[in-house]
From TrEMBL:
GO terms for molecular function: DNA binding; phosphorelay response regulator activity. Residues 155-259 form the HTH LytTR-type domain. The modification 4-aspartylphosphate is found at D57. Residues 6-119 form the Response regulatory domain. This is DNA-binding response regulator.
Length: 261
């Protein structure tokens, strides 16, 4: 007997989650294994439960749907159906089998069409997300989202089996450490399993600047800057920490701190 398709529902609206659950209850080959209210819960649940399909809301409390996709291990990619209330997304008119979208409010017929694409994906053994489609969706989302809402207000670090939420306003600087990023807050430091590029995208450039391929610093923590030759600078933070910038980052550091050329 064929195993049911294991489905994870991710949406910050209780009524939306209930509606999806109700529709799925009428599909004999679908089994709901969990519900998540935000992106952080989704990342954790996908890693632990390995669903076959994720019904993923686009705009949620951080991280949003795209942030969830970026955080999912490339070694494991579930099928994804985006769910959105923004009619602008319909302009994209995707027809990809590996990834679909549902525009709220949607009817049962449209929902079943999305599920048929998931079934086809399973039948053919497709495992890759449509990267081009994700990129188009993310670009559109950026244009629809006010600048003040595009950046994270907290990062997530794993401490043992627990998830620790780190307020961005408390961060002094971030440092690459192997496959992790070490987040420094005062005398404490925490590891988050993300790349420096991914973390940099989450941080508001009005508050943070990358000064080295392995260093990002919060601007209001910088107390003193000492130029070095050739092209490097030593930044002294409020707590006395000294960080050395890379030569190729000199121009962006000068702009960020409004330093003379």
């Amino acid at each position: 007997m064929t195993q049911p398709i294991r489905v994870l529902i991710v949406d910050d609206e209780p009524l939306a989650r209930a509606r999806l659950k109700e529709l799925l209850s009428e599909e004999s080959d679908m089994a709901v294994i969990g519900e998540c209210r935000d992106g952080n819960e989704a990342i954790d649940a996908i890693g632990r439960q390995r669903p076959d399909l994720v019904l993923l809301d686009v705009q949620m409390p951080e991280p949003d749907g795209f942030g969830v996709l970026r955080a999912v291990s490339r070694e494991y990619q579930p099928a994804v159906i985006f769910v959105t209330a923004h009619r602008d997304f319909a302009v994209q008119a995707f027809e990809a089998n590996a990834l679909d979208y549902l525009l709220k409010p949607f009817d049962q017929e449209r929902f079943r069409l999305s599920l048929s694409r998931v079934r086809e994906r399973r039948r053919t053994g497709a495992t890759e997300l449509d990267a081009e489609l994700v990129e188009r969706l993310e670009s559109l989302s950026s244009r629809l989202t006010p600048a003040s809402e595009r950046y994270a207000t907290r990062l997530v670090a794993k401490v043992g089996w627990r998830m620790r939420f780190l307020r961005v306003e408390d961060i002094d600087y971030l440092e690459a450490e192997g496959n992790y990023v070490c987040v420094h807050q005062g005398k404490q430091s925490f590891l988050t399993r993300e790349t420096m590029n991914a973390v940099e995208e989450k941080l508001d450039p009005r508050d943070f600047v990358r000064i080295h391929r392995s260093l990002i610093v919060r601007l209001d923590r910088v107390e003193e800057v000492e130029p070095l030759a050739p092209g490097e600078m030593v930044l002294t933070l409020r707590d006395g920490t000294k960080l050395t910038s890379g030569r190729s980052y000199r121009a962006r550091l000068q702009r960020a701190l409004d330093l003379p050329s």
